[in-house]
Structures are given as C-alpha cells and as structure tokens.
Amino acid sequence: MLCPACGGEYVHMVGDTEFIEGHDNSEAAPRMVRGDVLAIPMFGECGHNFVMCLGEHKGSMRVWFVAHPDELPGK
Length: 75
Description:
- This protein is mainly beta.
- 0% of the residues lie in helices and 41% in strands.
- The model has no long low-confidence stretch (mean pLDDT 87).
C-alpha cells in the first residue's frame, strides 16, 4: 500500500479500527457501498493522515481512502 496523497511507501495503521453498519441502505458510506464499512486510521511517514475504508455489499468489496485532517495518535 502506498500513501494515497503522495505515493510514499511507509504507511502505518494507528488507532482503533471502526466498524460502521450500513444496514443495507448506504448508511455507512453514501455513494460508495450499501453495506458495512471497516474504517482503519493510517498515517504515512511522509506526514499524510488518511483512513483506509473497506466496504462490502453482497460479496462485492470496495477499498478507498479518505483524507484525515487531524493528526492521528501514535505518530
């Protein structure tokens, strides 16, 4: 995995992974998936913070990244 902002190679998981229930109606991630989402806080040694999201619905898995504006703990 590379940093989605700059392509840096050194990224780390940090903090607590969050499970977000989508209730089969896009509550977890509107416009992305209808099902549930795992949100994993990450930071790159490049200085960028982001969240890696894994969402699924009926056997279809999507992975996307969201910029995280706050400094993540553990850095």
